[in-house]
Structure prediction request, 112 residues.
Amino acid sequence: MKKLHYIVSYVIVALGIVHMLYTTQAYERFTLGAFWFIGSGMGILFGGFLNLMFLRFTANDRAVWILCLLGNLISLALFIVGWFLIGEPQVLVGIILFACATVATFLRSGVK
Prediction:
């Protein structure tokens, strides 16, 4: 499960980077919408970073486990809302990734 969590975490990081890079394709000029789009990509990126941090420090820090679990749950909820608002297939990728990360984090709840 830990290896799968690493893979999912790196794919989340990649998704965040791709999301930010796609801003130039989605917006002709730097507008408020473009700014929010980049911010969403950064949120995805930081979600991946949080999971990688959890995987590295989970043996020693329960706070990291709690923060990672909350971050994954919030990200999952936002992607689900995004599915209802946008309804495009790429949102399903985020749902699947954060669902996997949430389950993987939850299953490692034996942190001291």
